[in-house]
Amino acid sequence: MPDTRIIRIEGVKGNLTDRDLAAIEEAGRIIREGGLVAFPTETVYGLGGDAFNPRSSSRIYAAKGRPSDNPLIVHIADVADLHRVALSIPDVAYELADRFWPGPLTMIFRKKEDLPRETTGGLDTVAVRLPSDPVARALIRASGGFVAAPSANLSGRPSPTSIRYVMEDLDGRVDAVIDGGDSLIGLESSILDLTSDVPMILRPGAVTKEDFLTVLKEVALDRTIYDDQSPEAPKAPGMKYRHYAPRGELTIVHGEPDRVVPYINERTGATDEITGVIATDETGSRYHADVVKNIGSRNDEYGIAQNLYRILREMDDEGVDRIYSEDLGGSGIAQATMNRLLKAAGHKEVTV
Ligand code: TXA
Ligand code: MG
Fold this sequence. Notes:
This protein has about 350 residues and is α/β, with parallel strands linked by helices.
């Protein structure tokens, strides 16, 4: 087991200091030599290795405890490098890149022949993302190549949005971690498959269907995203696993607050179990459960998205056995929040 070195970024708001750049240069060397480095991105922390080194990709799967049929995202720092990892790139990809890169968008293409199948989980396609986080981009450049990176959590845990949770899951399993503070967005990137006739959203994220329609005439949605009864398998292999599951049993309660609050209070009163509620600023003070977490204001869907994974982990840390959550759905990024919440709940939901 490697001793995990922690690299703290000093610069604020993306203004990296000379010491930061030197430390990132060193982290890039670790990746070049086949090692693993966890690093910040604007979505969630990533667990990075050299995308063109099959042994690095195998090490990533081992460090996460992840099934090796679940492909990794390849991170690039410049649009001009897209053709070095992908083939048959449609023009529309460059229009999408113009509008949404650098940023929380992953696009799927046919893969370049020499990109190892260990990186793409055995598939002929590759998922590519150009992150906006300056630390992530400096690291990719310092690696001298491209960085394959899944989220930096153990398989089955919520994606980490701060160094604390990266260390909780990966201390001793990676060579270094770079601490860049809390993740800005807090949910993983939107995934858009460009290998199908009509581009298809495989995972909702901060770039929404409405955003895509400003560039595309048409966009489809993988129907398994909100419907777990669908007989089809999700097209993003990772979406089939019961991800993001807290230890406690989580139920989502839909309905008007005046019905939801008493419904949850009845079930979190006198019981031997430790009970928890994922509430909003508007309702938090009305709950009586052992642990009440306000996820943010209903008027701030970005704040809610940013807090979701931290709160799911805190419920575990506080030993909560039974968790109730308000419906966190809505428009924009709230659709991605609700997708992750539904998965965390194993689609256990009631309407009152
Ligand atoms: O925001 C993000 O995307 C973060 C940061 C670190 O960039 N990464 C991330 O990676 O969320 P990961 O591995 O946790 O999720 C990648 C998802 C998985 O569901 C995987 O199955 C899917 O992308 N995926 C990767 N390559 C694919 C491909 N060629 N075809 C279909 N799905 C693919
Ligand atoms: Mg993940």
